[in-house]
Amino acid sequence: MTKVIVVGAGAAGLKAASDLLDVGLQVDLIEARDRLGGRAFTDTSMGVPIDLGCQWLHDAPDNPWVVEAKRLKIKTFKQVKDDFYFDPADLSVARSKECRKRVESLEGQIESALTNDHTDSAAANAVTSAKLASGDPWYPVAEARVAGLEESAELSEFSAIDHHAEDVELPYEFEPSYGNGHNYLPHGGYGALIEAYGKDLIARHGDKGTKRLSVFLARQVTQVHRASNALTVKSQKVSGGSALQFKPRAVLLAVPTSIIAAQKLKFVPPLPLATSRAFAKLPLGHFKKVALQFTHDIFSVESYATKISLEKLEELRKTFPKVQKDDEVWPLPPSKSKHTWKFISNLHGKNVVVGFVGGALAKQLEQESDNAVIQHALDRLTTTLGPVLGPHVKGMYAKRAVVSRWDTDPWSLGAYSYTAPGGKGARSHLYQQPMSDELIFFAGEALWQNSYGTAHGAYYTGAAAAAAMLEALGY
Ligand SMILES: Cc1cc2nc3c(=O)[nH]c(=O)nc-3n(C[C@H](O)[C@H](O)[C@H](O)COP(=O)(O)OP(=O)(O)OC[C@H]3O[C@@H](n4cnc5c(N)ncnc54)[C@H](O)[C@@H]3O)c2cc1C
After folding, report:
1. How many whole angstroms separate alpha carbon 449 and alpha carbon 418?
2. pLDDT tens-digit profile of 91-148?
3. Cα(3)–Cα(26) distance, rounded to whole angstroms?
4. What are the backbone dihedrals phi and psi of residue 95, each rounded to the nearest 5 degrees, phi first?
5. What are the domain boundaries of the chain?
6. Is-above-0.90 flag for pTM?
7. 3-77+167-283+421-472 is classed in which CATH architecture?
8. For ligand 1, atom 27, which residue shows the shortest CA distance?
9. Beta 287-294 vs 352-358: how paired, if at all?
10. Rounded to whole angstroms, how far apart are CA atoms 299 and 268?
11. Ligand 1 pocket, 351 CB below 6 A?
12. Is there an atom of ligand 1 within 6 Å of 60 CB?
């Protein structure tokens, strides 16, 4: 029986393993973490699913993870939410609507500056030459939406051309269409869904199933050695010691690009120059989530009923936005600050607020302790809610929080991929070119030009790499 190896049990590796098992191959799946899912991980410590990695099933209902959820009998639901723009000097519905228009217009201007740039240089150049109104107090929010939050990098760090690169013709196309742009959420979290997918695979093909799948957790692959047509994959236990060598017919590497660029996984002989250059041009950016539990819903004026005067309460009842559970709140950044936060209010009705930051601020916060990050988020919520409500926010903090840490995570070294300037074509280079001797294949979110930085993009690359491997092996 043909034996192959898949390295990495994230969305891409699990999908690849599934397709290889489906046609009868024997698969060793090697994963450095002690769990399945990679950058998909759901924390449940606060009694509500909090996704520290992927959260939204984008492009649903065509997203393949929606289809997999249905097969696994996991419910998904369409996200219903509103967006609010909080100017602490005027927390009224009317002002929120005005600010929303402003942000949308600025965002449109940044997007079109990037679309008109064809130079493969930093996106910041395009924005500078378009002379946008970057002095507008809402400008940092518009920029964060295009850069920090979407690319997990600053405009100065990613290539303008990649941001709007045309979808490429790919040798293996799987999806019939790209959905209708809706975001869905899986009941129980996206991390839990991908973990369930992996567990189902083990149930069907592990010791109690076909016995064709062996999963090695907490084991890192350190080297892929190739000598003519023979492969040796070297690994060791993450905790140290216990080296194991594998001799597969072929290997599929579904690890983040950052791991290969940092040479945490080495190749003997080294990868061709164009391939290693492509990995180096696809670093993972910075994105931080902070979930804080409160005793009350801090975005409802009713939560302040015993804390502020009746007069103020009556006034706010007439003007304050009706922020519902799971709505998004965009605060006006403090003056002179380039950085912005987004908050999800009252997550699933459990008084949990989730703060999001991307790019440089996320990178900076990653250097600080969890407590410092929590304080930072609490400070931003305090200013966001203005001089009347803000001073009561910290008193409602239930002292329960979860903070993500992807930058310093040794198995991701960042959040999700962006293309560094000069990196045009890096994604499709890696996607379309298995090694020339067709023993080594790559997969992972960074390789999916059409929706990089997503879990469904990762899924498609897993399927594509498995298909390429099967073809090379004569299946
Ligand atoms: C904060 C954040 C928010 C996000 N939000 C969304 C969202 O809302 N929607 C969406 O679709 N996507 C989102 N994403 C992106 C999504 O999570 C990823 O694109 C996807 O999970 C990546 O899957 P992957 O299989 O390519 O990589 P990973 O999930 O990173 O899997 C790679 C695996 O390889 C393992 N590995 C690494 N090195 C080795 C080694 N040497 N040996 C063995 N194993 C190794 C890792 O431990 C990991 O398990 C988000 C990501 C982050 C970080």
Report:
1. 10
2. 999 999 999 999 999 999 999 999 888 889 999 999 988 888 778 999 999 999 999 9
3. 5
4. -65, -40
5. 3-77+167-283+421-472
6. yes
7. 3-Layer(bba) Sandwich (3.50)
8. 10
9. antiparallel
10. 56
11. no
12. no
